[in-house]
């Protein structure tokens, strides 16, 4: 099994550990210290040895930061984690903060009691974050102190070792483009900036550029590594030798010089001393490396990671791989849902375990093994489904009860694609009010699925389409509508998103999730999610300009028992019936037995 259900949160240690941190702060002559969720690679998913925020506070969400001052401690999270924060963190020690509306730098701007000396670990913060913090502190006569060690690491006595996951080569039949060609394209792009090198600090960009995958981080198959690519197409890959075997080393040494990870600081300093110019992504590269380059006399050019957008725009091989992965995943989901409908006394953990087992069984049958799940399955029954990023544990596990909704948000990693799907299922007959909100969420999901839009359309432009039905009912949801998805990489990939903040143009080849929802704390939660591929522009009959659109990748029934058909208009009803017809045609041949096939026939009947 790729997921465990142990209680991961330890809020009972918060008071003691904050007190220890404050003693360390006094010794360092600082008034405060920031503890972000991010690691040295700015990843959403981090290895066990980088779970500093969880160690200090008990909070296990994927986004957050704690600000510990000598007289108070604030933990900033976004709207997805409000309920989770209250359950996992000692409210007598930590005050909740708003990571989106009033993040640490804005909080510090309003902190006018005294000038603060705030310490940070420069390996855990980007140049953009450092600038915002410096500006906020200096406005009140304060100072940002860049520490030469992380005090949390010294207090964390049983801190796990750094991961040494073995690297695998992503074959051309899955990658679609040779690594040497990707590296050459990146190198050629340096001329635009008159740069000598670019620092790839995002492990997913390193994995994509070199056509490798890793096993350092839970559920995300990239190796924790950085790379320098030079204008002459040479490169240096900073990767622990323990992560490669003979085959991988022979492959990689044809593309770049292999260096131990700890050498990167000296290499960057040397580039600086030679007055070189290096491209850095200000949202990813740790400030420690930017400072090393500039203090040595070099120049940095701040611009987007040059692999980020090409990685997001999938080639035809990657798109076809994703189609096949979703067909396989759809078969696993159908076998799971059929099992769920015929079972009783199912628990949240039991459901998540069965779903993973279905994915593994279908993978073995189709000779495309399940490599991992793409994130910890969100398996929420009843009121637990209202916790947007709920993670079931042995302490919270509950039985799926008749008359309630069950939300299961899950995904898989296959060598040919990454999947992410959410279905909300009626257990027995659910109240009309819950059916009404389920249908409003479905209307928003259909609106995105059927959208046509001109070149230049951004995620922020599409986001209201998913919300308008809820808005008209006086409701909304506190998360984005969609995120980018990698190709056997991170299930959350930028720069593409569908959200209130996304200014990135939605480009052909991108893969996005489409997942509106509705959550009533303490009662129920609803989310319906498919993955979509952005299609090329095409003319519409009697139209006057070409439009992009979406191809649905996910094939799995949407629970008709939770729909109020009278709330759907004719176009929405036609879309749903066509979607279900395609689902049956695509998935039925992949199922293992006739009973599951018959269940699918009934689940995809027209309304």
Structure report:
The chain is globular. The chain has three domains: 145 residues, 3-Layer(aba) Sandwich (Creatine Amidinohydrolase, Chain A, domain 1); 136 residues, 3-Layer(aba) Sandwich (Creatine Amidinohydrolase, Chain A, domain 1); 285 residues, Creatinase/methionine aminopeptidase superfamily (Creatine Amidinohydrolase). The longest helix has 26 residues. The model has no long low-confidence stretch (mean pLDDT 96). 34% of the residues lie in helices and 19% in strands. It contains 19 helices and 27 strands. It is of the alpha+beta class and 607 residues long. Helix 14 packs across helix 15 and helix 16 packs antiparallel against helix 17. The strands form eight sheets. It has a six-stranded mixed β-sheet, with helices on both faces. Strands 12-11-10-8-13-14 form a six-stranded mixed β-sheet, with helices on both faces. A three-stranded antiparallel β-sheet has the order 15-18-19.
Secondary structure blueprint with pairings:
Elements: H1 14-28, E1 32-36, H2 52-57, E2 65-69, E3 73-77, H3 82-88, E4 95-98, H4 104-109, E5 117-120, H5 127-138, E6 143-146, H6 151-155, E7 168-169, H7 172-175, H8 179-188, E8 197-200, H9 203-210, E9 212-213, E10 226-230, E11 235-238, H10 246-252, E12 257-259, H11 264-273, E13 277-280, H12 287-295, E14 299-302, H13 308-312, H14 316-341, H15 348-365, E15 372-373, E16 378-381, E17 404-410, E18 412-414, E19 417-418, E20 421-427, H16 432-449, H17 459-472, E21 482-484, E22 493-498, E23 511-514, E24 517-520, E25 524-527, E26 530-538, E27 547-552, H18 570-587, H19 594-603
Parallel strand pairs: 1-5, 3-4, 5-6, 8-13, 11-12, 13-14
Antiparallel strand pairs: 1-2, 2-3, 7-9, 8-10, 10-11, 15-18, 16-17, 17-20, 18-19, 21-22, 23-26, 24-25, 26-27
């Amino acid at each position: 099994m790729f997921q465990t259900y142990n209680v991961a949160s330890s809020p009972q240690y918060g008071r003691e550990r904050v007190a220890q941190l404050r003693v360390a702060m006094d010794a360092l002559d600082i008034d405060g210290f920031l503890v972000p969720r991010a690691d040295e690679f700015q990843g959403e998913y981090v290895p066990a040895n980088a779970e500093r925020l969880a160690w200090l506070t008990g909070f296990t969400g994927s986004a957050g930061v704690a600000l510990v001052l000598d007289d108070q401690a604030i933990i900033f999270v976004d709207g997805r984690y409000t309920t989770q924060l209250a359950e996992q963190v000692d409210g007598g020690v930590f005050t909740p903060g708003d990571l989106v509306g009033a993040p640490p730098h804005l909080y510090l701007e309003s902190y006018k009691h005294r000038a603060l000396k705030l310490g940070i670990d420069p390996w855990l913060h980007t140049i953009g974050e450092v600038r915002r913090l410096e500006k906020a502190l200096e406005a009140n006569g304060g100072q940002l102190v860049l520490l030469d060690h992380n005090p949390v690491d010294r207090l964390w006595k049983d801190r796990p070792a750094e991961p040494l996951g073995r690297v695998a080569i992503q074959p051309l039949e899955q990658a679609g483009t040779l690594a040497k060609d990707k590296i050459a394209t990146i190198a050629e792009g340096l001329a635009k900036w008159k740069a000598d090198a670019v620092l790839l600090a995002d492990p997913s960009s390193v994995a994509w550029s070199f056509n490798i995958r890793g096993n350092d981080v839970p559920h995300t198959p990239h190796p924790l590594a950085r790379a320098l690519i030079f204008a002459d197409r040479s490169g240096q890959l900073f990767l622990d030798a323990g992560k490669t075997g003979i085959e991988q080393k022979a492959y990689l040494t044809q593309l770049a010089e292999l260096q131990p990870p700890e050498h990167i600081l000296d290499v960057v300093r040397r580039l600086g001393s030679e007055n070189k110019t290096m491209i850095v992504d200000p949202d990813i590269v740790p400030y420690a490396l930017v400072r090393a380059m500039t203090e040595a006399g070099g120049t940095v050019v701040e611009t987007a990671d040059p692999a980020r957008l090409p990685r997001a725009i999938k080639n035809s091989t990657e798109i076809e791989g994703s189609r096949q992965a979703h067909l396989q995943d759809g078969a696993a989901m159908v076998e799971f849902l059929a099992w769920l409908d015929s079972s009783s006394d199912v628990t949240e953990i039991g459901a998540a375990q069965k779903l993973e087992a279905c994915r593994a069984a279908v993978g073995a049958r189709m000779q495309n093994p399940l490599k991992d799940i793409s994130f910890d399955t969100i398996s929420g029954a009843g009121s637990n489904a209202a916790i947007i990023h709920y993670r079931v544990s042995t302490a919270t596990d509950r039985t799926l009860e008749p008359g309630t909704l069950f939300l299961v948000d899950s995904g898989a990693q296959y060598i040919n694609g990454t999947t992410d799907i959410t279905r909300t299922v009626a257990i027995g007959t659910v109240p009309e009010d819950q059916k009404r909100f389920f249908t409003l969420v479905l209307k928003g999901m259909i609106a995105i699925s059927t959208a046509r839009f001109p070149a230049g359309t951004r995620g922020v432009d599409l986001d209201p389409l998913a919300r308008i039905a809820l808005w008209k009912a006086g409701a909304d949801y506190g998360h984005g509508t969609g995120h980018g998805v990698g190709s056997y990489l991170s299930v959350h990939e930028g720069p593409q998103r569908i959200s209130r903040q996304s200014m990135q143009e939605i480009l052909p080849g991108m893969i996005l999730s489409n997942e509106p929802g509705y959550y009533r704390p303490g009662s129920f939660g609803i989310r319906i999610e498919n993955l979509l591929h952005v299609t090329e522009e095409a003319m519409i009959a009697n139209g006057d300009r070409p439009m992009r659109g979406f191809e649905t990748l996910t094939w799995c029934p949407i629970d008709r028992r939770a729909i109020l058909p009278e709330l759907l208009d004719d176009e929405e009803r036609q879309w749903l019936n066509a979607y279900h017809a395609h689902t049956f045609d695509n998935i039925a041949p992949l199922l293992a037995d006739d009973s599951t096939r018959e269940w699918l026939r009934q689940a995809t009947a027209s309304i």
